[in-house]
């Protein structure tokens, strides 16, 4: 470094000279730099008689030293102080001063450095203006003019890379070319290298291949001109390697990739660990290994890439580029997770991106890329576990990254693609049309931003085609199908044979061909789909994750051809590919489930008997999908979305003369529905609630499922098959251990009709079902096949109409009805319900079931909202249902079987095939969590009221026998603790507190109390702990009527029965308190009479029937029929 003379005290010259020497040495020793800065400041502070030039020189030296220290240590105070020195220095060197050019260049350089750190556009604009001003004042023969031009070009290039203005790139390239032309051969390598980098940068934005070829040519020339051990050689090698690497990405020539690897390795060999280029060289080499893995599929390359990224992170600790290396490491770990399925890799990726985000604060130029990378990881975790919090956080990060990316920023279309992909995945799981529409919008915006020749344009084209296909399947708009075909064709055109992503485009095109096929079309139209699928299959290596979807689609295509030609070989192929789509444990469940739904749709469309098998397979796979889904929200969504599947399955089995199978499938589906919708539980949750052994087995089962899904990837076909068989044996062994646990003997199995038929031991059970195809009922007797009752006069639309009409009537129950218009409408509805549904069932019952017998209704779907027990001809002398039989309800057949067994057993036993409730609830509260406040142990009855009113309590004392002690829990004593204790210990409970129902989530329904409400879930948890579940509950409460939205309604009494009460009497909509009290009094009277002075819940249904007849006079019909009995 040259140094102008210092005027003034000779001592000052000595101080400054020492500082200058230390500054010169400081590139390799930060402590020398600190001492130099201290000397500079000391000189400025003690010397008072310096000339203007001397003072400005010292200011410049101090400023430059501070900038260097900022680059090394990142202290913002150094950069701020440097800027102040430069500004003061400029004031001392006005226009015309011989050193103003140098001062302008130093100031502009500092601005450029600050821009690269903060991304503040005003800095780069000001830097370029100052460089331009310096060059305009710099003589053409100035020895440093070429260096100034290089800095000016660097600033133009930085602004181009940030803002994307083509003019900036053009001017930067022109400036570099000018320096090349002015330089002698030994000076030419540096400008050639910079020119090559500028051309690469422009190529990355506009993808003109000529720029890339020129870049390789110039950097090759620069390398040739450099001596072997020249200090600039690593940088030139890196530029040249970057050119070959970019050309590989464009053309896919592995020779270019290997050349890039060789040059990057040479850079690494030339850089010591202390060299600032060392970490960057490791990162570049890792990029090449990662690209080679993606191209050739050798997992060793992926391991090498991760190792190099990790080493780069270690060696760059505390350096500005550490965040970049952490991001690259996280991206590679995400890829490894997708390859191997180890959640630990995904967690490490998220951790590294979070660390990078802390290093890239608001305003940092890399922050958008880091946020997008972190969002991708959270997106992957959402896909794996279904946690909505992950999806929402990922979407927030994507949106923030998008907001920080200008309209022409090169990363913007990448972020748009990522957002669209996340929304599409959300749609696949939750079927939200609004999110699918947003997904399509984002894909289209990304396509508009990509140049026509951009290598990633095909990603947007294929993604958009898939999204449009999903919308077509949902809405049936042919325009979406046509657009999907156009976009997929365009994607295939840009993905030639051998392209890694070609199989996904081929699979999408096969789906388009299949969706274009109609039952009456020529089956040869399916040949195109077969052609695309076979090409996709041939393009995938053994173990490729896409094979599962390809096999699933092949199974659907073969099945369609079988339906058309009836060739047994096509059916055999369809079944074979269906099995292959599940060949890796849980990995193929989702693809196979989607394929089974296509089978169902096709078989129903062609009215083929194979629909029954298709439904059976679909229900089995749905159950497995729910079992492996970890997020409760996703399990609930799956169960609710496919709730109608079980109803249609029931209908199909009836249509094809398999009534016993119809009952089995319906009960399987209803257990799944109410386990998830009411309790939000999976059977693995129940297993974990059974202590340490249950936790160990549940975790082992999940882990083996995951290994079966992902562990085969990257293995050869033989190795994959051997590993799969070994894992399958391990999983079978775990399943065997689980089935040895009490209550889990039928783990992953479902009840047979022989098991279910025990539900009718005390009277026939009528299952009433409405599907898209037709409505019917089945009567289950204790022996023989279930009796089929066709309901030919009613459709699913009629059932929905009646449910809405009934809701609109009873929502005003208790309000004045002076003209009795509401009652007339109710009678008309009950008459229609009798004629369309109940009368045909009664006709079938009268053949075998004596009048006055008990019967149980198990309605499904929209039938759950209708009062089947009250149907009748109220305007005629003909009998109503209540005059013929004593009606009860059961939400599922299994819950009734469980209650009956509990009633007849002297010791508590787990349910036969519904461990989902008892097992889970017993583990939810430890014994130490029980309330400690005592309730009288001698009592057999508890009355719960959240106010001080005593009417109900007085009524109970009057009507119950003296041997029955009633514990009153009311007013301030009606606390959460006291109520839970009473439910825990008393066999009979009388609720007089107002209930607050939740029809969407029945077990979140609750009773308000003095301190805090008690929910049905808490009641269920309490009942799971008792040695013998309570016998009976009476809901002497008022609450709103059920809504009409959703698939099924579980009323409060039904939910209380599911919670554990063997028998429940209550209202299903609001009833006047005085009416309730009268009916309750009569009910308890008849219970005592029927039980011979004792209390037996088995007599509850008959007692309710008698009570309603006794109090019939003077009570509106809508109030009487609100009372129902549920359970034994």
Question: Could you outline the blueprint of secondary structure elements for this entry?
Answer:
Blueprint: H1 10-25, H2 30-46, H3 52-73, H4 76-92, H5 100-118, H6 121-137, H7 145-163, H8 166-182, H9 189-206, H10 209-225, H11 233-251, H12 254-270, H13 278-296, H14 299-315, H15 322-340, H16 343-359, H17 367-385, H18 388-403, H19 412-430, H20 433-449, H21 457-475, H22 478-493, H23 502-516, H24 527-539, H25 546-565, H26 568-580, H27 589-605, H28 611-628, H29 632-641, H30 643-655, H31 659-679, H32 683-688, H33 691-710, H34 717-739, H35 753-756, E1 765-770, E2 775-780, E3 787-790, H36 796-810, H37 821-845, E4 854-859, H38 881-884, E5 886-889, H39 893-904, H40 915-922, E6 941-945, H41 951-959, E7 966-970, H42 976-985, E8 988-991, E9 1006-1007, E10 1014-1015, H43 1016-1023, E11 1032-1035, H44 1052-1059, E12 1063-1067, H45 1073-1090, H46 1100-1110, H47 1117-1120, E13 1123-1127
Parallel strand pairs: 1-4, 4-5, 6-7, 6-8, 8-11, 11-12
Antiparallel strand pairs: 1-2, 2-3, 9-10, 12-13
Helix pairs in contact: 1-2, 2-3, 3-4, 3-5, 4-5, 5-6, 5-7, 6-7, 7-8, 7-9, 8-9, 9-10, 9-11, 10-11, 11-12, 12-13, 13-14, 14-15, 15-16, 15-17, 16-17, 17-18, 17-19, 18-19, 19-20, 19-21, 20-21, 21-22, 21-23, 22-23, 23-24, 23-25, 24-25, 25-26, 25-27, 27-28, 28-29, 28-30, 28-31, 29-31, ...
Q: Short description, anyone?
A:
This protein is mainly alpha-helical. About 65% of the residues lie in helices and about 5% in strands.
């Amino acid at each position: 470094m040259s140094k102008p003379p210092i005027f003034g005290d000779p001592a000052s010259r000595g101080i400054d000279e020492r500082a200058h020497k230390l500054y010169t040495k400081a590139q390799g020793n930060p402590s020398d730099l600190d001492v130099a800065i201290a000397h500079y400041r000391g000189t400025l502070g003690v010397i008072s008689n310096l000339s203007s030039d001397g003072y400005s020189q010292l200011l410049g030296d101090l400023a430059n030293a501070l900038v260097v220290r900022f680059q090394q240590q990142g202290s913002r105070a150094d950069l701020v102080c440097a800027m102040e020195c430069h500004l003061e220095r400029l004031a001392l060197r006005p226009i015309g001063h011989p050193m103003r050019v140098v001062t302008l260049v130093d100031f502009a350089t500092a601005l450029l450095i600050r821009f690269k750190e903060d991304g503040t556009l005003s800095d780069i604009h000001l830097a370029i203006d100052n460089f331009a001003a310096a060059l305009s004042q710099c003589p053409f023969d100035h020895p440093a003019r070429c260096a100034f031009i290089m800095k000016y070009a660097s600033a133009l290039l930085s602004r181009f890379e940030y803002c994307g203005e083509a003019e900036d790139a053009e001017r930067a390239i022109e400036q570099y070319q000018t320096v090349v032309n002015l330089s002698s051969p030994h000076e030419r390598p540096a400008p050639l290298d910079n020119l090559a980098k500028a051309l690469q940068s422009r190529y990355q934005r506009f993808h003109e291949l000529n720029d890339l070829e020129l870049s390789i040519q110039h950097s090759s020339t620069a390398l040739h001109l450099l001596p072997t051990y020249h200090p600039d050689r690593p940088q030139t090698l890196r530029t040249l390697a970057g050119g070959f690497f970019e050309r590989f990405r464009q053309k896919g020539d592995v020779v270019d990739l290997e050349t890039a690897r060789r040059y990057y390795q040479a850079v690494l060999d030339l850089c010591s660990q202390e060299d600032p280029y060392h970490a960057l060289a490791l990162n570049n080499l890792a990029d090449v290994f990662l690209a080679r893995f993606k191209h050739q599929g050798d997992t060793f390359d992926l391991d090498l890439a991760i190792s190099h990224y990790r080493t780069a992170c270690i060696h760059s600790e505390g350096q500005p580029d550490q965040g970049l290396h952490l991001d690259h490491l996280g991206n590679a770990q995400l890829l490894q997770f997708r390859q191997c399925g180890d959640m630990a890799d995904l967690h490490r990726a998220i951790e590294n991106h979070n660390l990078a985000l802390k290093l890239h604060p608001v305003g940092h130029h890399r922050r958008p890329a880091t946020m997008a990378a972190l969002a991708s990881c959270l997106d992957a975790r959402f896909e794996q576990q279904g946690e909505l919090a992950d999806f929402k956080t990922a979407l927030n990060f994507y949106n923030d990254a998008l907001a920080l990316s200008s309209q022409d920023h090169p990363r913007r279309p990448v972020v748009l693609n990522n957002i669209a992909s996340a929304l599409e995945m959300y749609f696949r799981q939750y079927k939200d049309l609004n999110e699918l529409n947003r997904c399509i919008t984002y894909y289209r915006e990304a396509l508009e931003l990509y140049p026509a020749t951009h290598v990633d344009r095909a990603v947007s084209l294929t993604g958009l085609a898939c999204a449009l296909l999903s919308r077509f399947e949902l809405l049936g708009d042919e325009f979406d199908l046509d657009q999907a075909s156009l976009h997929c064709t365009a994607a295939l055109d840009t993905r030639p044979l051998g392209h890694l992503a070609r199989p996904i485009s081929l699979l999408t095109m096969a789906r388009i061909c299949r969706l274009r096929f109609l039952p009456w079309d020529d089956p040869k139209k399916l040949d195109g789909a077969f052609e695309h699928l076979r090409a996709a299959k041939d393009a995938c290596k053994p173990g490729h994750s896409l094979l599962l979807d390809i096999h699933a689609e092949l199974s659907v295509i073969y099945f369609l051809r079988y339906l058309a030609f009836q060739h047994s070989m096509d059916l055999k192929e369809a079944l074979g590919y269906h099995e292959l789509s599940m060949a890796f444990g849980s990995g193929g469940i989702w693809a196979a489930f989607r394929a089974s739904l296509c089978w169902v749709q096709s078989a129903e469309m062609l009215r083929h008997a194979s629909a029954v098998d298709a439904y059976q397979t679909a229900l089995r796979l749905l159950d497995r999908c729910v079992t492996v889904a970890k997020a409760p929200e996703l399990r609930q969504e799956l169960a609710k979305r496919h709730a109608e599947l079980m109803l249609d399955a029931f209908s199909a089995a009836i249509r094809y003369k398999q009534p016993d199978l119809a009952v089995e499938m319906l009960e399987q589906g209803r257990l799944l529905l109410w386990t998830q919708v009411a309790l939000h539980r999976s059977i693995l949750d129940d297993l974990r609630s059974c202590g340490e052994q249950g936790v160990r087995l549940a975790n082992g089962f999940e882990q083996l499922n995951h290994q079966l899904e992902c562990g085969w990837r990257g293995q050869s076909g033989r190795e994959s098959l051997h590993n799969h068989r070994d894992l399958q044996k391990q999983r079978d062994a775990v399943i065997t251990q689980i089935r040895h646990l009490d209550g889990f003997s039928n783990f992953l199995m479902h009840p047979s009709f022989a098991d279910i038929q025990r539900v009718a031991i005390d009277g026939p059970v009528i299952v009433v079902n409405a599907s898209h195809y037709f409505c019917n009922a089945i009567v289950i007797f204790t022996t023989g096949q279930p009796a089929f009752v066709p309901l030919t006069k009613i459709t699913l639309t009629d059932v929905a109409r009646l449910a809405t009409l009934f809701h609109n009537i009873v929502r005003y129950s208790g309000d004045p009805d002076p003209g009795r218009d509401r009652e007339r409408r109710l009678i008309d509805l009950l008459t229609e319900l009798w004629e369309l549904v109940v009368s045909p069932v009664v006709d079938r019952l009268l053949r075998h079931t004596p009048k006055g017998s008990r019967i149980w209704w198990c309605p499904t779907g929209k039938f759950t909202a209708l009062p089947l027990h009250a149907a009748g001809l109220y305007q005629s002398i003909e009998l109503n249902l209540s005059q013929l039989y004593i009606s009860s309800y059961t939400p599922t057949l299994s819950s009734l079987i469980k209650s009956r067994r509990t009633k007849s057993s002297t010791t508590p036993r787990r349910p036969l095939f519904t461990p989902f409730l008892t097992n889970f609830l017993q583990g939810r509260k430890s014994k130490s969590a029980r309330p400690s406040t005592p309730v009288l142990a001698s009592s057999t009855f508890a009355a719960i009221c959240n106010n001080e009113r005593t009417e109900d309590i007085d009524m109970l004392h009057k009507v119950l026998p003296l041997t029955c002690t009633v514990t009153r829990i009311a007013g301030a004593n009606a606390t959460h603790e006291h109520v839970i204790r009473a439910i825990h210990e008393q066999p009979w409970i009388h609720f007089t507190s107002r209930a607050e129902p939740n029809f969407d989530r029945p077990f979140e329904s609750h009773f308000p109390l003095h301190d805090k409400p008690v929910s049905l879930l808490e009641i269920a948890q309490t009942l799971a702990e008792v040695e013998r579940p309570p016998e009976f509950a009476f809901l002497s409460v008022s609450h709103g009527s059920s809504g009409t939205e959703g698939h099924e309604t579980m009323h409060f009494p039904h939910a209380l029965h599911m919670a554990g009460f063997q028998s429940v009497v209550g209202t299903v909509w609001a009833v006047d308190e005085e009416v309730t009290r009268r009916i309750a009094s009569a009910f308890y009277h008849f219970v005592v009479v029927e039980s011979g002075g004792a209390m037996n819940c088995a007599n509850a249904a008959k007692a309710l029937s008698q009570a309603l007849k006794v109090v019939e006079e003077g009570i509106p019909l809508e109030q009487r029929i609100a009372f129902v009995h549920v359970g034994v």
